[in-house]
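TICKET: design request
STATUS: open
ATTACHED STRUCTURE:
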């Protein structure tokens, strides 16, 4: 009698383990399908992105929608600063003597 009872307990434990294994296999299969779907979507999005950032695509967008034109020669304009207008040359000397005490009245440049 104890042998039959022990056999039924072992069979029920093995059955529950089999059920858990099937449940986990089903979850794993659904996760794999989800990963595959996301991977396909990522591939499509990467192809779409590479098409959007292609130089010819940007050039045609600028030309057609923004009205920009391709220039043949890029020019630069160099401007020389006049020496007397540099800020570093206009720093006044410190005020000395009695005027230094009253500089706030006359202003720092007087």
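STATUS: resolved
RESOLUTION: sequence designed for all positions
ATTACHED SEQUENCE:
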């Amino acid at each position: 009698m104890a042998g039959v009872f022990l056999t039924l307990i072992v069979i029920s434990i093995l059955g529950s383990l089999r059920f858990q294994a099937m449940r986990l296999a089903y979850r794993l299969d659904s996760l794999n399908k989800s990963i595959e779907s996301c991977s396909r979507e990522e591939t499509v999005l990467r192809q779409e992105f590479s098409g959007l950032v292609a130089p010819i695509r940007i050039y045609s967008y600028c030309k057609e929608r923004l009205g920009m034109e391709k220039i043949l020669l890029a020019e630069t304009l160099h401007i020389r600063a006049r020496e007397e207008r540099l800020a570093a040359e206009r720093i006044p000397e410190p005020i000395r003597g009695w005027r230094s005490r009253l500089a706030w009245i006359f202003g720092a440049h007087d």
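CLOSING REMARK: Residues 2-52 form the longest helix (51 residues). The two ends are 120 Å apart (CA to CA).
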